[in-house]
Amino acid sequence: MVVLNGAKDCTEMKNWKSELKSGLKEKSDLESFFQVDFPQLDFKTLIPLALANKIKNAGPDSVLWKQFLPSENEKSSEGLKDPIGDEKYNRAPQLIHRYFNRALFLPTSVCPVYCRYCFRKNELGTKKLFTPDFEKTKKYLQHHPEIEELIFSGGDPFILTTDKIDFYLSNFKNLKYIRFHTRTPIILPSRFDQELLDTLKKHRENFDQISIAIHTNHIDEIDLEVEDTIKKLGSLGITLLSQTVLLKGINDDPQTLKDLFLKLSSLNIKPYYLHHPDQVKGGMHFYLPLRRGREIYLKLRDILPGWAIPQYVIESPKGGGKVPAFNPESLDFSGKLIGKSGEISFY
Ligand code: SF4
Fold it and tell me: Looking at residue 76, what DSSP letter applies?
């Protein structure tokens, strides 16, 4: 049960574990904190207390509120439970091997926040893809030397204890590249305490590269505390990338994205992916047609410097993996045809 005393100052919550433990989970906690009624939903809610304070200050029309607080729209039956067809590439426990030289490692189904648009929102907190059997996972990697890069995802890998991260990195030393995909630097920057920074630094020299792809969708998510964390990560020799989901009502216009990508570039984060939203059940109110996404990206290419333009990608529910979503000439990329009117042939 969360004990709340009005808008509790986030500086009281210095430890990331207590910040998470005090996070808002129950409908009653949310209503008491935000003084607003929320719908009862099947999807989980979790908002670390410091983030809840930021959301409250930003107000109900803000992009923070819309991305993290439950809404009636989530009751819609439209959309798919597994919108990217992950399951058929689940080759070993917690491992998705879809591309030849890299694999996705899912060490947890838990996140430090539950984003309302998440493509895994029907799986998070369930055991479907996440049941561990580490020996089997290691064996699979040993038998597949073509895998050079392991991508930690989830859930969010930085929800793991530092000891656990240390354990995994120690066990994956024979791989060349490690990448983390995470929303934690944005929504729980206190997680990057000295112990975790030291652990990442210790392992940095064991790999050709460690990169962190930071998931952020809007410049309003990046305050001074977040900037400070990003600078600390950059100082470890870690390559910083970004991934952004194009979301209706959040960032679906070229200027908003331009502001975000220039801000990221100024923090030495390479804009890496702009994802077209997945058609996920409970998140269809964030969905926009591919044609609209392509119009936005076309404009973005005109107003950003070339080095700040991310790849615009889309995933098929049939599990074909990421393919370029921008294809105005209707050329065949990665074997998939994207038509001039915006449709994908296998969609
Ligand atoms: S942090 Fe990532 S995986 Fe977790 S809920 Fe948000 S989008 Fe989904």
Answer: -
Q: Which of 137, 139, 136, 168 is nearest to 152 (CA)?
A: 168
Checking if the pLDDT of 72 tops 90, the result is yes
For residue 10 the two structure tokens come to 């986030």
The mean predicted confidence, pLDDT, of the chain is 88
Mean pLDDT of 316-329: 69
Report CA(270)–ligand 1 centroid distance (Å). Answer: 20
User: What are the phi and psi torsion angles at 160 (to 5°)?
Assistant: -70, 155
Model pLDDT for residues 8-22, shown as the tens digit of each residue: 444 444 689 999 999
- Å from CA of 214 to ligand 1 middle: 11
Neighbours of 102 (CB within 10 A): 17
Q: What is the value of pTM for the model shown? A: 0.89
Residue owning the nearest CA to atom 8 of ligand 1: 118
> Cα–Cα distance between 37 and 175 in angstroms, integer?
49
Q: Say if residues 74 and 39 touch (Cβ distance below 8 Å).
A: yes
The closest-lying atom of ligand 1 relative to the alpha carbon of residue 184 is 1
Rounded Cα distance, 309 and 288, in Å: 20
Q: What is the pLDDT of residues 254-313, one digit of tens each?
A: 999 999 999 999 999 999 999 999 999 999 999 998 888 888 998 999 999 999 999 999
Across the beta sheet with 177-182, what order do the strands follow? 90-92, 95-99, 102-105, 149-152, 177-182, 209-215, 239-245, 270-275, 311-315, 322-324
Average pLDDT over every residue of 132-138: 93
Please give the helix or strand (H or E) that residue 45 lies within, else none: none
Inter-axis angle of helices 49-58 and 27-34, to 10 degrees?
A: 50
* Ligand 1 pocket, Cβ-based, cut-off 6 angstroms: 111, 113-115, 118, 120, 124, 154, 156, 183, 215
Going along the chain from its start, the domains and CATH numbers come out as 10-75 (no CATH), 87-337 (3.20.20.70)
Pocket test for ligand 1, best of 69, 74, 96, 215 (most atoms within 8 A of CB): 215
